[in-house]
Amino acid sequence: MRAHPGAKAPDNGPRPAPARPKPLDFPQYQVQGDLDATYKYARNLDQLFRGVEKTVSSQHVEALNITLLGEIPLERLIPEGHLPPSAWLQDPARAVEVSTEGQDQNALIEKAGESERESFYTRVKELLQGNDACFESLPGRPGSRRPPTVKISYANKFYQNLLLMAESWDTSKDNYTTNEDGKEMYTGRRYSAGHEMPPYYREDVVSAFVEICVWPFQCNLQNPRSSVNRKVQFRKQCFPIQGITSTVCRSPKDRQKARQGILEGPLIGIHCRNSTTFRTENEAKGQGKEELMSFLFEVGAALLLAQKRAREGKLEEKPWQDKFWALAERRHLGEMGGGRQDSETNARARREIEAAKSGVQLMEGIETEKKDNNESDAKEPKKRKIQGPKQAYLATKPPESQWEPKMEYRCIGKEPGAGFDNIYLISSINHHLSLVNIRIDDRYLDFITCGPEQERFDPSTQEWWILDVKRSKWFDLFDPGDRAEAMRGIWGVMRWMNRDVGVS
């Protein structure tokens, strides 16, 4: 969690009014598949998506041949038998009828004397509490004098971040008045408007919420190490995907690997966007550039997750692996401006390496002698070394690897021999989140990554050339009932991902 200022002390008195809240807006996706358009654009995906943020249009959606179903109930979004029943939202000790459907199915979360249902309820009951009571119960909150009425443990970090989000989004206590001087005054919880909230507030809230659901499955969140790990590959081009904040990964069963910080996965992706307006007045619903980009970023995040999961059992193919300018000898010492890859060039490079090593040893001896002679003298300020053009060339390294360190890429949850992968994405905008499921065929993934066999590609006979996208409703993180339903959905996905598929 990022370091950011804590929640402000509660102020019940009137204060200068913050900006008026904007009406909540959500992207309205209208996706209509067109195989003819798909065939026309699919051959040159890398060229079509070059500069997509400036030229985005329905052509980019048509090229990927996407079908979309929205407002899907969780029972249809998650495979049967893995979604926790609604009865799990009740206290197991007081339930009249204790359902054993799917109970204790996943051994990862079983504890001594605690079943899976009990583990689920101890967490979801904290999310079912009212916001005001939970905010008052936060430890160390400035200005809070009343004793806590509820006990928060698992969801403590979530409510700490939710309070920060509430100071921009919670309009339930808004009250605008006018003082004697005609100045507009305000009493309520907000100190700013939702569109003014820092983006990382949303990221921290969603991450803290997901952690509650995945920790019992021996999983945690990993943030991308660099921007290179946020790029999806379309043929020979790599396109950055905005909004990918973290992924859910599993700790290995091998304790030695776990101590080294190695993770397995990824299992689920988390995608957060800071946009609050998705179309202009002149754009129709479903055709706004901002909502088209929002949808393409979601699909791109799912494709990137699928590409990472498909790396299981493979070795990284580095484009610069056999290039002369990336060889160990040429990388550390060589001629400026490149050169030819021949025996004469390599021999010259080896001679320069040996000379450089001798020079380094000589300089080390001189520096040591100088240091001994000046031990009694006052310390002089160190002069900044100016790096010449040749030294800058010698320090040049090959491009950064797209594979994340300490990550064992595994397609967890995929049936052995299955020709497709089910990708789950947690998408968040405003103060809401939604669960997205995208079914990606292995041949589809190879097609966009490696390129088409143009003489054999006929979209009318290729059933695999389609992306099935399903989305749940948008769950309001300020609503206790929606929070519980969102946890049911994520818990169900984790149960399904960690089921026994016959491989270790």
Please explain how this structure is put together:
Strands 2, 5, 8, 9, 10, 11, 12, 13 and 14 form a nine-stranded mixed β-sheet that branches. The chain has a three-stranded antiparallel β-sheet with strand order 1-4-3, with no helix packed on it. It is built from 16 helices and 14 strands. It is globular, with a radius of gyration of 28 Å. The chain has helices spanning 35-42, 45-48, 52-55, 58-63, 74-77, 116-127, 131-136, 156-169, 199-214, 255-259, 289-309, 328-332, 343-373, 389-394, 442-450, 480-497; strands at residues 15-16, 66-69, 175-178, 184-187, 219-222, 231-234, 237-240, 244-250, 263-272, 407-409, 420-429, 432-441, 467-471, 475-476. 34% of the residues lie in helices and 14% in strands. The longest helix is centred in the last third of the chain and has 31 residues, at 343-373. The model is unreliable at 98-104, 330-342 and 360-364 (pLDDT under 50). With 504 residues, the chain is of the alpha+beta class.
